[in-house]
Specification:
alpha/beta, single chain, binds glutamine
Length: about 230
C-alpha cells in the first residue's frame, strides 16, 4: 500500500527552532488556531521547505535563545534577533531577514509632555529583557531602566503607570498601537538594525543551507510575498 508520506518527507531532518513567540507580527500564537504564525514563522517554514528540513518551533524566553543555540538544544534562533557584534561572538547569523529599528512609545495622555526621545531622558524607560531595546532603555534612563520577559508585559506596565516609556522594535510597537489607543509612538526612530536567523557558532552546514535558501527565496519573490502578507507592502 502506498505510504501517506513521501520518502523525502520522512528522510528530511528536523531543524529545532527557538523563538520568543509573543512578538507580533513576526512570531506569535494565532488565538483561533493556536498555531505559531507571523512573518518570520512563514519565512523559516519556506526556508525549511526549500532547504529540505522539517521545522519544529519551540517557544522560549528571548534571553534563553543564544544559550540554547550554544548548548545545542535548538538549531536555529528565529526571534526578530538583531545582528550585533556582541552576539556575533557567540552565534553565527544568516544574511539579513528584516530591516528593524527601535522606537520609544509613551502613554497617549503624556504625548504633549514627551514630544521627542530627548524628553524621556532620565525617565523610567522599560524594555524586553536581553534585547537591543534594553540597551537603548539603559542609555536613555540610566539605572532606572526596567526589563520584562516580553514586549507585551512592558507595554502593560507602561499602561499601568510603572514605566514612562517603552523602547522596542518599531513594527512590534505599531502592532500594539493598532490594538490599543492608550499609546503614542515618539517620532524619530532611535536605531536601524538588521535582523538575522542565528545558528550555533561554526555550524556551517545549517548556516549555508539557510543562506542559500534565503537568497533563492529572495530572488524568486517568495520573501516579498511573505512581506506583503504581513505588512501589506
Ligand atoms: N530586535 C531586538 C533584539 O534583537 C528584539 C528582539 C525580540 O524582542 N524578539 O534585541
Amino acid at each position: 500500500m502506498a505510504s501517506l508520506y513521501t520518502a523525502s518527507a520522512l528522510a528530511a531532518p528536523t531543524l529545532r527552532v527557538g523563538s520568543e513567540t509573543t512578538f507580533p507580527p513576526f512570531e506569535f500564537v494565532d488565538v483561533k488556531t493556536k498555531q505559531f504564525v507571523g512573518y518570520e514563522i512563514d519565512l523559516i517554514n519556506a526556508v525549511g521547505k526549500k532547504a529540505g528540513y522539517n521545522i519544529s518551533v519551540q517557544s522560549m524566553g528571548f534571553d534563553a535563545i543564544i544559550p540554547a543555540l550554544m548548548t545545542g538544544t535548538v538549531d536555529v534562533g528565529v526571534s526578530g534577533m538583531t545582528i550585533t557584534p556582541e552576539r556575533k561572538k557567540k552565534v553565527d547569523f544568516t544574511v539579513p531577514v528584516f530591516k528593524g529599528g527601535l522606537v520609544a512609545v509613551v502613554r497617549q495622555k503624556d504625548a504633549a509632555a514627551y514630544k521627542t526621545p530627548a524628553a524621556i531622558k532620565g525617565k523610567q524607560v522599560c524594555a524586553q529583557l536581553g534585547t537591543t531595546g534594553q540597551l537603548k532603555a539603559e542609555e536613555i534612563s540610566g539605572k532606572k531602566a526596567r526589563t520584562f520577559n516580553n514586549a507585551a508585559e512592558a507595554m502593560m506596565e507602561l499602561r499601568n503607570g510603572g514605566c514612562d516609556a517603552v523602547v522596542a522594535d518599531k513594527p512590534v510597537i505599531e502592532y500594539f498601537l493598532k490594538e490599543s489607543r492608550y499609546f503614542h509612538e515618539l517620532p524619530t526612530q532611535l536605531t536601524t538594525e538588521d535582523w538575522g536567523f542565528a545558528v550555533k557558532k561554526g555550524n556551517k552546514k545549517v548556516l549555508n543551507a539557510l543562506n542559500s535558501a534565503l537568497v533563492s527565496l529572495q530572488k524568486d519573490g517568495t520573501v516579498a510575498k511573505i512581506h506583503k502578507k504581513w505588512f501589506n507592502n
